[in-house]
Amino acid sequence: MQTSFDRENVDVAWCPGCGNFGILKLVKEVLEELHQEKRQTVIVSGIGQAAKTPYYIDTHMYGVLHGRALPVATAIKAANPGLTVIAEGGDGDMYGEGGNHFLHTLRRNPDIVHIVHNNMVYGLTKGQASPTSQRGFVSKVQVEGAKNEPFNPLSVALSLKAGFVSRVNIGNYSHAKEVLKAAFLHKGYALVDIFQPCVVFNQVNTYQWFKENTYLLEEGCDSSNFEEALKKAYESMPMPLGILYQRREELPTFEMHVRGEDHRPLHEVRHDHKKIQELFEKY
Amino acid sequence: MTIDELKAYDGRNGAKAYVAYKNNIYDVTESPLWKEGEHEGVHFAGEDLTAQLAGAPHGDEVFKGFAIVDKLETPSSLSQTETQTEADLKSKLRSWYKRYHPHPMTVHFPIALHLFAAAMDLLFLFNPQEAYALSVFYTFFAATLMGLVAMVPGILSWWINYDFSSYRPFIIKLVLSLLVLLLGIINIALYLNDQMIVYHDSFAGLTYHAIVLFTGFSVIVLGYYGGKITWGNGSKPVNSGEKHQANAAAQALHSMAKESAQIPVNDQHVFSLLIGGPAGSGIDTIEKILTHALKASGYYVYSTKEYMSRVRGGSNTTLIRISDRPINAPVWEVDLSIALDESALEHMRERYTEKTLVLADVSENGTLPNLITVPIRERAKALGDRRYANTYMAGFIFGVLELELDTLLASIDHYFKEDNENIKAAQEGFKEGAAVEHYTLQELPGSDPKSVEALHLMDGTTACGFGFLAGGCTMVTSYPMSPSTGVLNFMAERSKEFTIVVEQSEDEIASLNMVLGGWYAGARAMTTTSGGGFALMTEALSLSGMTETPAVIYLAQRPGPATGLPTRSEQGDLNMAIYSAHGPFERIILAPGTLEVSIECGYLAFELADRYQVPVILLSDQYLADSMSMIDTVDFSQYEPGSYIIQSKKEYQRYTDVPDGISPRSVPGLGEGLVCAAGDEHDEAGQITESHQTRIEMVHKRARKREALLQSALMPNIEGNGDIAVIGWGSSYGAISEALARVDDPRLCHVHFEWVHPLAEKQLDLLKKYKHTVVVENNASGMFADQLKLHDIKVDKKILQYNGFAFFADQLAQMIKEKIKEL
Fold this sequence. Notes:
- The complex is a heterodimer of chains A (283) and B (823).
- Chain A is α/β, with parallel strands linked by helices and 283 residues long.
- Chain A has one domain (19-281): Rossmann fold, CATH 3.40.50.
- Helix content of chain A is 33%, strand content 16%.
- Chain A has helices at 19-33, 69-79, 91-97, 99-108, 153-159, 173-185, 207-212, 226-233, 254-259, 273-281, and strands at 41-45, 60-63, 84-90, 112-118, 164-169, 190-195, 214-216, 239-246.
- The radius of gyration of chain A is 20 Å and the shape is globular.
- Chain B is an alpha/beta fold.
- Chain B has six domains: 3-73, Flavocytochrome B2, Chain A, domain 1; 102-231; 270-445, 3-Layer(aba) Sandwich (Pyruvate-ferredoxin Oxidoreductase, domain 3), CATH 3.40.920; 457-638, Thiamin diphosphate (ThDP)-binding fold, Pyr/PP domains (Rossmann fold); 645-712, no CATH class; 717-821, Rossmann fold.
- In chain B, helix 16 packs parallel to helix 22.
- Chain B is globular, with a radius of gyration of 33 Å.
- Residues 75-82 and 233-259 of chain B have low confidence and may be disordered.
- Strand 2 of chain A pairs parallel with strand 20 of chain B.
């Protein structure tokens, strides 16, 4: 399907068969179907194969440093609350290098969509374990297999009371689309962790593996039940797919805290020098 | 010299230009404002200006920059008394004159009447009718009469306002108006003798008409010279008050263009007071109350503090200095000291001289001869609460110094609203302090309530905060770290009134990344930090460089490495500020040394960042942040933030390769285009590229910004005319300035940098003319001296201090004396 978000004349840097192609298509189609205005959309990404995605989508974009997309996206949303802001990157980028920012973005609750391509491996640096790699995953560095407890983004997000926590598998495209749409429509921070295979460096977690080790949450199951969601977040083999948790009542967002009802883009804000003068005269 | 001898120094024909003020004779020869011995066309060299200053648009601070060459002698005590009476009368008349200004009020009449008479006479000459002849005479008569009426207050004004100045316009006016008066009387006599002369071309008739026409012309000349006296020669620089949005930064830079000034004169009378006690004992409260009350007492006040990295206990001190003139530096040795406990006494002991009066809450006198035991804590407890120790001690100090109790009580009331207990404690302290017998106490300087009242007392933190407000800051994201946190607090406190997004970030990495997100989306964002935090920001600093996203970083230094001395001062992060972050890119580093410059630099940081799309680092330090001094009112309307963001067109490219390297910057949602910024090497559209040609083009494009931004470089501030340059930068300004005044050596001059990176050709050329250079720095290796050497500037000597203290003016003076012996 052609969308108004297709960017022409770009040289896509991914390997043939990469799961990122599916996610690129997914994001563009969701934006299109939600009638999103591209001049009001900003995608911020860090570094990694996944973080190249915004270079291939025709919107505003800011390609930042490894792990730093979330603080940048949070500030953009505060500077101009009228924009739709997406932070996108891989598991190493968002959960490893940017782990601290992930924790504190959850606490801040900015109204952004957080898309994480989770392939359980480092692609750009050629095959090392990522924070989400399963125990035993062998690489040139983890020669005896990964020993550390895999990072569980869902339970971490839930423990900090994130308002929208979800996981999808790009192998199940229509389901992924449905969940991503819901994430965009959610007011407040929304996490969409997307399972995706790396066809070059991860021979373990393949399309087939993700298919076999995941299951879809039942339709109509109550996604507002926090305790249930927390339980499901810890399930493994198979791991649940879908919206684990979506809070019913809206909580104030970061930009509401720092901007109140004032939604002007900050470039329109000018301080009145008379007020500065008055303040100065008090000293 | 006497007033008569002074007259020879009128500044004309190559003579020196001296002026007297309050019995001091100042040399104003070099001042551009006193060319040919004239100031604004109304004041003249060779005169005593004491009385004239009251009518000037400025106070006596203008004399501060000039060297005193002699004292003005008065011939005898008798004539002094006479002069005094005359001065009193004059000053009374002056205030009367100011209220009723009789000369400007009456002078219109003769002018208008004489002109009218002349016009009527011309009519008559064309058409000789009786009606015209009559109106000529009556108007002329009235004009002559009113001329006399206007002359009397004119001469009075010449005396009381201008001291019978012999300035040419006065003489011309006097001679001409006397002539007009004389001719007027002659004409009236001629006419009354024979009214028919107007119709005849006899001698009398021709004289009559000639006089009427001549006086008509004369009043025009009189009016012209009257205007000249009031308005001067029109050579005064005109403040147009215009604002050029796009050139706001350039304009502000222009206003900072430095004029060569003199090293301050070392006759300043300063009194220094040092208070020491454990953290949490309320020294801060004493400082607040005392500085407020001392300012209200009419003193120029300065204060600074040094404290340990703990919330309770230890020994901290606050130094307060008062003077009859502006003051901006700490000293090591003090005149009066208050020790709130024994360890404070030990802590401060090395700063005492044989003259220092010490008031200490200690059990024994020990070995100090001038120590008076004051049981501060005991007295406070007796007054009801140990917290009253602060107000009790403030009262005690006021008592010892024989200052006005009411002024202190007003200050206490200002901080503790209607708190009778604190008032009582202060009264009690005052009574006891006044009763203390002391023989060694240094005399207090004179006070100047009128000048001081208009000034503002604040610390460097507050001044920087005002600068950032003026710079239009709309976002502050910081992780707290001493000594930078004060600015974060200042901005947070004003955030709701001024629409500023303030967020305490999880770490300094997030701080600067948020700042970049803010600027990318249109905010004017900044972060505040110290060395350790800045180290964490270096990666994002590099992102600012690559994506050409502006950023403002307030970096308040403290001694490192690592945690170092967290609450103390050093100028040790200059190298880090210049070199940190990977890859080459342009940045600007500003380092203010006074409150005025702190405000200016705070504003400029935002302007320069926005204009050149580079990170701007404002380097402060604990000393500057925590030291209070006085600042004149600043006109904030001159600090209009410029507009540098453009509305994008559909084909907009963020990194268009333009000649000056500064690609027009737009923000998301403003216009038809898309804003694509990339931390990877990119093409003009912001797309990742590995093309080696594009890489070269982009490296060159970013590097070209240096040439553009160097044009904004601020010239160093220069005081003195010597050929040995004592070079400093940033917060050491006040200490070097006072130290050089103390050294009082005409071979020296003070060159002070506020724009410390990148150094511009015009700054460096200026240094090349000096025979010797001595660089003064608050760090161990001489980082700025190294920068100068890199730019082929010879550095002869370095004076370095890295003990955790900023320079003390008295110690620095000694160091400079020693160092120049080695030259």
